[in-house]
Amino acid sequence: xxxxxxxAGQLGRMMALAGYPLGLDFLFLDPAEQPPAAQLAPVLKSxxxxxxxxxxxxxRCEVVTIDWENISVEALRKLGRxxxxxxxxxxxxxxxxxxxxxxxxxxxxITTTRWRAVSSRRQLDSAIADIGLPGVLKTRRxxxxxxxxxxxxxxxxxxxxxxxLGQVPLLYEExxxxxxxxxxxxxxxxxxxxxxxxxxxxxHSGGILRLTRAPYGNARLNRLARQHVLAVMExxxxxxVLTIEFFVRGGRLVANEMAPRxxxxxxxxxxxxxxxxxxNHLRAILGLPLGDARAKGYSAMINLIGAMPGRAxxxxxxGVHLHDYAKxxxxxxxxxxxxxxxxxxxxxxxQARRLLxxxxxxxxxx
Amino acid sequence: xxxxxxxAGQLGRMMALAGYPLGLDFLFLDPAEQPPAAQLAPVLKSxxxxxxxxxxxxxRCEVVTIDWENISVEALRKLGRxxxxxxxxxxxxxxxxxxxxxxxxxxxxITTTRWRAVSSRRQLDSAIADIGLPGVLKTRRxxxxxxxxxxxxxxxxxxxxxxxLGQVPLLYEExxxxxxxxxxxxxxxxxxxxxxxxxxxxxHSGGILRLTRAPYGNARLNRLARQHVLAVMExxxxxxVLTIEFFVRGGRLVANEMAPRxxxxxxxxxxxxxxxxxxNHLRAILGLPLGDARAKGYSAMINLIGAMPGRAxxxxxxGVHLHDYAKxxxxxxxxxxxxxxxxxxxxxxxQARRLLxxxxxxxxxx
Lengths: 366, 366
What we know:
2 copies of one chain form a homodimer.
Chain A: E1 2-6, H1 10-19, E2 25-30, E3 43-45, H2 51-60, E4 63-66, H3 73-82, E5 84-85, H4 89-96, H5 98-107, E6 115-118, H6 121-131, E7 135-139, E8 149-152, H7 155-165, E9 170-174, E10 180-188, E11 194-196, E12 200-205, E13 208-214, H8 219-236, E14 240-249, E15 252-259, H9 269-272, H10 277-285, E16 298-305, H11 311-315, E17 321-324, E18 334-342, H12 345-359
Parallel strand pairs in A: 1-2, 1-4, 2-3, 4-5
Antiparallel strand pairs in A: 6-9, 7-8, 7-9, 10-11, 10-12, 10-14, 12-13, 13-16, 14-15, 16-18, 17-18
């Protein structure tokens, strides 16, 4: 049984590592020279939209999935004529377009920020008149890790933001004064069966996730997040793993965005949950029974960004699990992550803080 | 950093799966057409003793290890002139020869069975006169999974056993009326640092391991096993994972044999220990700090032998972890294993019995 994955980054790599024990084979499609998954599975080296490569992938794989959501939906639609593609293209298309995403949240009664679509300077001014400053100007498409965004606080910011981003369709939304950021990860199988992981508490710095703690939050907040992710998955008759990121403001969830895939904030599930997000994604898209999404103890996940610390220095911390993505170092690049799992929440937190103090002392940890 | 592995079976495969997250590369050497590790790492297809292939392996790998102990020590010695080889060849040579192994146990005051070396029919008769019947006649070399052994209870058995095995050097030992079989897995690093996993309780059928429960036994038995594995590792200045199998007779340990490698009875450590035996073997041979060998809860590991059950049927049991080795089915062949991990010993046992009743109802589980 061969699983095709469009995109051979670290998410695809971790999917393959989770899938080999299930007896699966993998075939990737990626234009990069030596993407992270290439070390452990064959890769068709090609543009994501190349018809020949897509044809080969479709012909050799029982099911095709993605490791990156900004993939051409047109290309995936072609694939879908020849093989099964999961998650559903409508969900991927919605996640690619912040306006469709906002409309979906509103339709499903999931609280989100106030927003306006912006495709001209006049519309931007009118959006600011409605929503006020400060706010965030974002490209409708192709945003990730804080890229394609500008925070507008002053009239000068508005000019700069428009100059920077005004060439493409945009969205302007209120800047939410949030207490913290969380995410919820759900998985839905072909039969409609679902599992939802406990909430993740995510700490960002410079637009990049640095630390995730899980499980996070009280039963009420977890129940609410669970309802939301189940509602989105039902809406799409979704198959696979889906993530929604929220701001928490005064104990309420405000949806920020969704990702139709396994997610950085769920990497702790490899060691910290009964079944990892990667294995559950594969189980879902193959029509297999889903695995238990419960957490085992308390986990903290720390991203390794820009430079890879020495292996020995990381591993001398007892109980640290290292995940090296085999990527070339580059400033701001996610090169790997660490996970610690402890029975005791306090011990987990102390371990995480000790590691972060050593690895990234510049980061403020709330 | 490339790790060379002589033998590309399921043990090598699971080593690679444990090593990729550490940022390691792998290169295997194996004569088989499509060995289990070939799915996820390059394999030099060659006889284990081929000088050219061994030269390539040595040239491309910072360290070389084994996934099978019946490898030519001469070939490994050649490798050792060009690269680092772990575990030490003396330990591998000892594990390959039941007579050297028995002498080692005796030297280190590790209780073992009464035994005699046998290389003629006359010596066999004399060994039986000393030790009595019943007993077990075993080839000195190349035994595994109950192969190369004959239980002798009657004079007719003695004739049959001699006819079957008499062409090669043998060992005759008493048949131990044991209560149960256990194994201990230790790991020792280059610096002399060591970790020992808790005892495994192993249930065999037809000479093949079917079920392992861990952690097993009281503190006294664990302490004793720990002393023994530490003594053997110290003796060899061992580097890597080492396993010793024991019979338990009246609450005492009687050493049966040792394996200079990761072991089937330690597969539960992938999900059930803080650090798996595979990761710890790699850490050891690379001179990295060892990981914590403590168990997380209670584990049961069930081997899948001869035929692979359907994936969906296995995965519908909540919390079951499947490990499929991607091998062609063949009677008596180890094709994969299942692990369950539970906080509660009783729940773990019920899960294991439920699975075994479904998969191998013919096996008697003590």
